[in-house]
Amino acid sequence: MADNTGNGQKTNGLPRIGFYICHCGSNIAGIIDVVAVAKFAETLPGVVVSREYKYMCSDPGQELIAQDIKEHKLERIVVASCSPNLHEETFRKAAQKGGLNPFYFQMVNIREHASWVHENKAAATLKAKDLCRAAIYRVRLHKALEKRRVPVNPDVLVVGGGIAGIHAALTLANAGKKVTLVEREATIGGHMAMFDKTFPTLDCAACILTPKMSAVKSHPNITLWTYSEVEKVDGYVGSYEVTVKRKPRYIKEDLCVGCMECIEACVFKEAKVPDAFNQGLSKRRPIYIDFPQATPKVVVIDPATCINVKTGKCKKTCVEACDRDAIDFTQKEEKVQLKVGTIVLATGFKPFDPKKSPHYGYGKYPGVFTALEIERLVNASGPTSGEVLTRDGRHPKAVGIIHCVGSRDEKTNKWCSRVCCMYSLKLAHLIKEHSGAEVYNFYIDMRAPGKAYEEFYEKLLSEGVHFIRGRVAEVTDWAMTKEEEGKLVLRVEDTLAGFVRRVPVDMVVLATGLVPQSDAGDVRRVFNIGCGKEGFFQERHPKLAPVNTFTDGVFIAGACQAPKDIPDTVAQAGAAAAEALALVDAGFVELEPNTSYVLEEECCGCKNCIPLCPYTAISFDETKKKADINEVLCKGCGVCAAACPSGSIVQNLFEDAEIYSEIEGVLAR
Amino acid sequence: MSEKQMQPTEGSKPKGFEPQIVAFFCNWCTYTAADLAGVSRMKYAPNVRIIRVMCSGRVDPQFIMKAFAQGADGVLIGGCHPGDCHYSTGNYKCLRRMRMVQRILQRFGLQKERFRLEWISGAEGDRVRAVVNEMVEQVRKLGPLDLPGKMKKLDEELAEHEMHVEPAREAAHV
Amino acid sequence: MSEKPKVAFYWCAACGGCDEAVVDLAEGILDVVAAVDIVLWPVAMDFKKADIEARPDKSILVSFINGSIRSSEQVEWVRLLRKKSQLVISFGTCAGGGGIPALANEFSREEILKYVYETCPSNVNESKVRPGPTPVAHNGDGSALTLPELHEQVRSLDQVVAVDYYLPGCPPTPKIIAAAVGALLSGKMPPPGTVLSPDKALCDECRRKDSKPADLSLAEFKRPHQMHIDPEKCLLAQGLLCMGGSTRSGCEALCPEGNMPCTGCFGPTSRVRDKGAKVVSAILSNIAADEPEAIDKILDTFPDPVGTLYRYGFSKAMLRRKQDD
What is the ipTM of this complex? Predict the structure, then answer.
């Protein structure tokens, strides 16, 4: 460690600045000449201490700052290291430890924005100098600021009632927090409720999920709102105001006991509506319940097909059949307001639409199924009571499972959906078990990286399931030989054997990948969070903040963040719940002091700023005839500061003068 | 290497004109995207200097004027995609202003490639690389703007005058 | 010679309105004249340059200089006055920010001279004679006739000599002139560099302020001749580009009182560095469009952006002039 402690340097009335540049091992020092930057910084006016150090974020690094503040009477600190998104807090605390206001600090991002993105050492070092000069110019103008403390409403909103939402809600409720769980469908359970078994243990999905679903329903701390959607979220971390749309199910939830007499009594003697829960493989009536364990166990009337809802002209045999008078056709859509402090988003995924890969013949050949359809077919409570049958009622003798449909594919989605290899193995096992058919898996790579997953693969290999390595080119009914007649033929290059195979089967299963919900874009805008290119919700940091978002107090869990299996989903849901708990139990959050304020004397009352604030934080004081910013409502974007025509609004931490000095600094060469 | 020297190009000897681009990136999207480009070790031209603001709506066109006046050869603004602003609508305010800024800059004689507004989400590290590289190349082709130099040269008409009218007088305060 | 303080008035590139403004003090001018000795006032009194040159340095208490600086002669004069004066007051918006003459900065000197002396359709100038420091003609006695050199750049006064105070306005109003003279004579001047007018924008003293809605969203900009202007309502709210919100007050909203929008002659407040850019930042944030094409459509109705935004302060624009890029 070389010290450049600026012997006897005069600061000419400028604040005394300590400058520190971090090697970050070789992450920074490998590209940027940190010694040269430290020497350079020392020559800048106001800098009285300039050091380079191996790891500034380490305890000794932080201690160094605190010590120097005391020893050299430092009044400002600049640290050149990584992104402020990582360590700004660390160094602010170090400054504070030395007795300095933490906002007398400025961070320079020379790792993410320089050493990691440039190869030319001289150019990167020059850039680092420019950026450091800007920070040194800027920090002189910094002001002492205080973080704002706002209380956290202890109630939590969980959005999405799949396994992620269920687990998060239960964890929070068990910790004694009041939770509102909002689910769009008529029942909670999500995709997991549709599954028959779960890999690799093959436990029955219903057996492990149902108890959790009932626990949600009966938990005194959980309010369950199904058939409901979040429409609007206002406020900020600690006090969100949520508007929930509750769709009419035309059933009084508190009266219905789920006897289903009404369903039998429906004027539709035959079920005619495709049953979405069974992937359209069976039919239901306009009044229905998704599955026997639906939670809440309350029927629902589908307004699109119920004659009474549509025309008002029905005998209403269902009403007669209900001895509890639970059916109520007068129900209207309701908007309910809710106040919570934190939010867990667990809105899940949707399966890839295989019609987007038409060469696999989905929708064209009745023998082609999606994996989720097979889940329902092999399920004892499914449309065939667990029998594996083609759409025309035949028992398949051979079944082909095509992996990576809508995954790892340049033409559709590039990402690996992570669960398809494993669920394909599971389905292969179940199909074989239920039908005795020969099962062929067509895979690109077998991905089995979870606990006991590889072993499950081994087990399937030993069960006589066939594995052919190759991406299927097409599924066709064009027979080239006698044996192929009446069959579906999968044409594939066997990349291990090195030739093209034609495999005739009776049933094709498409292992469809996981994609974001169709309305994921709208949903994330409601909650003010970002998404990646593929549309899955964006976590704050892929490793260090995987369930946080860029909006404080909003956490994400499960497949809405990225494809993942049940164990990972549950783990993430627990993590999201824990993050929410951490805020709730602290009772308050500290917010960045980067709010704006009006210079009261200077404000001319032109009202230009008022319509610009998205949080209605700016009001017009009719007595003083001036604008006034409510600091609690201000989120610190600075739009008003930029838009004040007379320059009479100041944004803390981003004052005009501070930004000008940064501009001067980067260009001062 | 002295401060006065030109920056070298990536992977080559120092030579020729290296543009200086000042970028104003919003904290939530484009600054994060630049972080992501770093974490992903994407390599791009070293000519850009990023200044962080909370929202692209904080970018006062005065900052752009200041950057050019101070010697920037180009100014780049990065914000969240329309509809995705962390502060709901700040990027629209930015867009409204910048459409006019572009017109004004052209009236001031600046080539339009010197000023650019881009929407780059936090997930688009590769877009930071592509935009910076492209802009650096475009500005390199335009050559230096060098307003400080031009202004200094312009003020020589005062000095010249001084030479033959009032040689003894001390320099004017400007 | 009397012991009364010496005062000089001088005009550079200006319309004469600033000198008129001094006369507009009406009877007040008599008090001023009684209190001071005027040693230079080209528009009203006959003094020569030699008279000023003959004075000792700093012997003039204050020089009020109006007009922007665009010729070698003006540079020479203001340097002379700076040398001979204790205080220099930039008088009016031309001296302060370049004013209307500085709109010439949107063109090169060559473009201007070429048009004025060559291509302008009403010209007859076959030998393409241009005025300038090079002798272009002879007086009857055979001596050369030379003219001052026109500069490439039109400058504010403080871009040529140090300025102690600024009186803004096109022209400064009698009220702020009287206040400045009063302060000067009583020795109660604010810190050097101050603009002698409230550092608060004009809406503050505009009668129409209360009629401005708090949710203004502008769908188009109109020019005064295109509409009937409501004499009570906020002009910006009527779609007129009123710059009151970004312009220093002190004029008591003279233009809005006369049913015309503020065009910004008092210049920006001290917190604004580039008025044109700031107006863009402020007013255009509130236009009623989010799509580029729709925004452009509204901007198309914005009259002469550079000329409007930098009407009085082009010399102080950070970019300073039209560049040859």
Answer: 0.94
Distance between B131 CA and the closest CA of chain C, angstroms: 19
CA dihedral C203, C287, B50, B115 (to 10 degrees): -110
pLDDT digits (tens, 9 = 90+) for A131-176: 999 999 999 999 999 998 999 999 999 999 999 999 999 999 999 9
Residue A633 to residue A655: CA distance in whole angstroms? 19
Asked whether residue C172 carries a pLDDT value surpassing 90, the answer given is yes
Contact criterion met (CB < 8 Å) for A525 and B10: no
**8 Å CB contact between C32 and C179:** no
| Contact assignment for C309 to B142 by CB distance below 8 Å | no
**Cβ count within 10 A of residue C153:** 23
Shared domain for C38 and C166, answered yes or no, is: yes
The reply to whether residue C79 touches residue B65, judged by beta carbons under 8 angstroms, is: no
Residues spanned by the domain of C264: 202-316
Instruction: Please tell me the CATH code under which domain B21-143 is placed.
Output: 3.40.50.960
Could you say which of C215, C271, C283 has the minimum Cβ distance to residue A646? C271
pTM of the predicted model, to two decimals? 0.86
Peptide bond into C121 cis (omega under 30): no
A8 pLDDT above the threshold of 70: no
- Does residue C325 lie in a domain region? no
CA distance B32 to B25: 9
Per the structure, the count of domains in chain C is: 3
Contacting residues of B for A130, CB less than 8 Å apart: 49
**Is residue C105, in this structure, part of any structural domain at all?**
no
Going by C-alpha positions, the residue among A510, A464, A450, A506 that lies closest to residue A483 is A506
pLDDT tens for each residue of C41-97? 999 899 999 999 999 999 999 999 999 999 999 999 999 999 999 999 999 999 999
Q: How far apart are CA A128 and CA A135, in angstroms?
A: 11
| Per-residue pLDDT tens digits for B41-96 | 999 999 999 999 999 999 999 999 999 999 999 999 999 999 889 998 999 999 99
* pLDDT above 90 coverage of chain A, percent: 93
Residue range A400-424: mean pLDDT, rounded:
97
Q: Picking from A92-106, A330-344, A459-473, C31-45, which range would have the lowest pLDDT averaged per residue?
A: C31-45
Distance of CA A618 to the CA centre of its chain: 32
Stretch A32-43: mean pLDDT: 98
Q: How would you classify residue C239: left for phi > 0, otherwise alpha for psi between -120 and 50, otherwise beta?
A: left
CB contacts < 8 A, A to B, total: 165
Cα A642 from Cα A596, distance rounded (Å): 10
CA distance A559 to chain B (A): 17
Among C155, C159, C319, the residue with its CB nearest the CB of B69 is C319
Q: Which one of B9, B37, B87 has the shortest CB-CB distance to A635? A: B87
Q: Identify the chains in contact with B, defined as 3+ C-beta pairs within 8 A.
A: A, C
Give the integer Cα–Cα distance in Å for A462 and A618: 70
Domain with CATH 3.40.50.960 in chain B: 21-143
Tokens standing for residue C158 = 């403080």
Q: What is the spatial distance between Cα B100 and Cα B61, in angstroms, rounded to a whole number?
A: 9
Which residue type occupies A340? V
Please tell me whether residues C213 and C311 are part of one structural domain: yes
CB–CB contacts below 8 A, A to C: 83
- Structural domains in chain A? 3-139 (3.40.50), 148-247+333-348+517-587 (3.50.50.60), 261-321 (no CATH), 351-515 (3.50.50.60), 596-651 (3.30.70.20)
Do residues C225 and C296 both lie within one domain? yes
> In this complex, which of B10, B49, B122 lies closest to A120 when CB atoms are compared?
B10
Dist CA A247 CA A263 (whole Å): 20
Whether C168 and C260 map to the same domain: the answer is no
More confident residue, A458 or B14: A458
Residue in chain C nearest B103 by alpha carbon: C305
